Amino acid sequence: MSDKHAIEAGKAREVIVFRIDAQEFCVDIMSVREIRGWTPATVLPRSPSYVRGVINLRGAVLPIIDLAARLDFQAANATTRHVIVVVQIGDQVVGLLVDAVSDILTLNESQVQPTPAIASDSARAFVCGLIALEGRMVNLLRLDSVLADVRVEAA
Question: φ and ψ at 106, to 5 degrees?
Fold first, then answer.
């Protein structure tokens, strides 16, 4: 079920909130398989600029997406303070490189506002809603769009 459909159904759900630079984003906790520390990735030739490479995750090849670069922010200069959020969308598992994980929130329909109409089409493709919390805004990511062009197959 997509992020928007879960919210429209009126069901409360949990999301994981993480930072990329000064921006906060979240994804449905049901899509998250694990959160792990940064591990240097093996670069793949001719891959998109936002694909950092792959790592070995318990015998499986895990592509690592620099989420900052994917969202057209400045690419991350990964350090030991960065984390990889391992997510699953459909049958694909990928790692999202983010600055830090900050919260787990329980949301309901009334807390999620639609993405403003003045946002660009590409912004609306990645963000399916905004959550206003205590003077800050959290972008609800549409993971299927973030992962749309990523296809790394295990050899």
Answer: -105, 125
